[in-house]
Amino acid sequence: MELRDFLIRAHICSQYYGGSVKNVAYFMNEIQKLPTEEEFIKLLKLSEKKIGKYMAYFLSDGLTKEVEENKNYGGICTIFDEDYPVLLKEIYNPPLVFFYNGNFSLLNAPTLAIVGARKHSPYAKEVLKKLLPDILDEGIATVSGLAKGIDSLTHKITLSEKGKTIGVIGTGLDRTYPRENFELQANMEKEGIVLSEYALGQKPLRFHFPARNRIISGLCQSLLVVEARRQSGSLITANMALQENRNVLAVPGNINSILSEGCNELILEGAKPILRAEDILEEFKI
Predict the structure, then answer these.
(1) How many domains in the chain?
(2) Core-most of 72, 92, 256, 272, by most CB within 10 Å?
(3) Which domain of life is it from (predicted)?
């Protein structure tokens, strides 16, 4: 078995039973060979009860079938692959394996991540319709999370302007969350790319979404927050972007609106205020 195939099996298996697949990947990368069973068990750092279940499934025909189903459904990229996205590989905790449908080359294109409130105001839509056409005309792809609100709005406006967009989801590629985005997700797989570190069948569990957000911030050169409440998930993503040395931008808003509190505070803390498309293009040296 090749290192790549071993890692894919370990990654999928860990989504059921846990285990430190990162240790396994680093070990294989360093010595360029598969671990022995004893080494593998030690690297996973699982309890005796869990390791029995993990190894039983890891060696099973059931897992072999599941791996083939994922391969047949779309593409699979691993941290060992030469074409692994350059920016994503730079982050502190890059996904060891991710699954995708769409135009893989977009993952190495100039990218602007856009995040914000799930329940946004009409102001947010006006802002995106004003800013995005000029951004997209320069060949910059948008990145967001295919969630309700600003995410969906970003993807829809990008597609309507014939631009390219990247969606990072917190489920398997065969699922859509929220369900109302089924058609949007299908269109993005044709016109852009949708990716996930979760294998087919994986549900939208709560802890998947903070993990997804690190990929959104990891894929971009700059991240724009359009509307965000104080202590929102969007601000967490912005902080992740800062930690990864990405440019953080924010659209200022009404000081009386709770939907603008997060953006206005980001600006107070040093995020670049965005008033026009040119303010964003400057970050891409355009």
Answers:
(1) 2
(2) 272
(3) Bacteria
